[in-house]
Amino acid sequence: MAARIPAAKPSRWRARGDLARFTVIGLFILFVLVPLYWVVITSIKPSNDYLTVPPVWFPAEPTIVHYTAALFSYRGLQGLVNSLIIASVSTVLSAILGTMMAYSLARFNTGGQHLAFWVLSQRFLPPVAIILPIFLLFRSWGLYDTRFGLIIAYTFMTLPISVWMMYAYFRQLPRSLEEAALVDGLSRWQTMWMVAVPLAAPGIAAASVFVFIAVWTEFFFALVLTSRHAFTLPTVFRAFLGFQGAQYGEACALATTSLVPSIILGMLVQRHLVRGLTLGALRG
Amino acid sequence: MNERERRDFDAGLREEVDCWLRGDTSRRTFLTRLVLMGGAAMVPGFGYTAGNAWADVVDLSKVGLADKSTPLGQAQDAAVKASTEAPTEGSAYRAVQAAQKYKGATINMTYEAGLQALEPKNFSGPLWQALTGMNYNVVELPHPDQYSKPIAEHIANSGAYDILDIEPAWIPALANGGVIVPIDDYVSKYMNQADLDDYHPLYKSITLYKGKRWGVFDDGDMFSLYYRKDIFGDPKLQAAYQAKFGKALEVPKTWDEYSQVAQFITDQLAPNVYGSAHFRKFGSPGNQFSFLQQFRANGGKFFDADMKAQLTGPAGVTTLEQMIAQNKASIPGNNDLDAVAQWAAWLQGKVAMIFSWPPTGRISSNYAQRDKAINFIPQSTIVDKVGYATMPGDNGEMASGYVKALAAGSNNEEAAYLYMQWNTAPPLSLVRTMLPYTLRDPYRLSTYKSSEYRALWPSANEYLSHLCDAANTGVVDMIMPGWQDYALSLDRMCTAVWGGQDPKAALATAAAEWDSTTQRLGVDVQKAAYEQFQKLPGSYADHTIDKLGQSVHVE
Amino acid sequence: MLDPISVTDLATSGPLPPPARWKGGGAVSAWVDQHFKWLMVAPAVLLILALSIYPLLFSLWVNFVNYDFEIPGHDFVGLQNFRQMVNDPLAWSSLLTTILLSLAVVAIEFLLGLGLALAMVRMFRGRGIILSILIIPLFISPVIVGQSWALFLQRPFGPADYLLSQLLGHPVNISWVGEVPWVYIAIVIADVWQWTPFMFVVLLAGLAAIPAHLYEAAELDGISGLRVLFYVTLPQLAPIIFLAVTFRLLDAVKLFDVIFMLTGGGPGTATYTTSFYLYQIGFQQFHLSAATAGSWLFLILLSVVIMVLVRRLLRAENA
Question: Does A110 touch chain B (CB under 8 A)?
Answer without folding.
Answer: no
